[in-house]
Amino acid sequence: MRTTTPDPGNERAADRLQRDFTAQRPNAAWVADFTHVAAWCGVVYVAFVVDVYSRAIVGWAASLTKQTGLVLDALDMALWRRERSGRPVEPGLIHHSDAGSQYTSFRFTTHLVAAGIDASIGTVGDALDNVLMESQIGLYKTELIKPQGPWRSLAEVELATAEWVAWFNSTRLHSAIGHLPPEEFEAIYYAQHQPNDVLAINR
Q: What range(s) does the Integrase catalytic domain occupy (predicted)?
């Protein structure tokens, strides 16, 4: 099945990042993609959403199919986790992905619009247009999937992925953000950008 054919009549979004994978704050830009894991039960597909500013994995999902629901579940987890942490997304957030049909589908793009998120789509077949996400998936494969296989079931991949994501966000050091874990890097940002009323209360 081809994954680069959009729904008929659904115009593809422009590339808003233009290979500039930097951001001035959390929730300014997210990148997304999915990969596959060979398992005894068949192929397990795992989708991720990553914050460009901190490299935090804000959402993920796993499924035995690579339909739109897979990437929607990852997006919904990202929205839920940000809301739950007290840092909900604001209109203008950019969601960047490749041109796979899951991301260009009417169902997914209308979900972005409803959440106030601006879609961004890279060029068909050019991995450099989403190189940050490609790098994150490479770490997932190198640090978890390859050394801990073979994998037996969807549930086994899900459990291991959940544990790896928690470690990745809270403990793993990243050279791109000053050799800090993503959660600590974001905490520093918010500590330095508190609203004036919060600062006044704390004085």
A: 22-189
* Chain Cα centroid distance, residue 185: 17
* Phi and psi, residue 32, nearest 5°: -145, 150
Strand locations in 101-186 (E) = 118-121
97-118 pLDDT per residue, tens: 999 999 999 999 999 999 999 9
d(CA 36, CA 22): 27
pLDDT tens across 3-55, in order?
Answer: 444 444 457 789 998 888 999 999 999 999 999 999 999 999 999 999 999 99
The reported pTM is 0.89
Query: Which DSSP helix (H) or strand (E) runs through 125?
Result: none
User: Rounded to whole angstroms, what are the CA distances from 166 to 58, 161, 186?
Assistant: 10, 9, 15
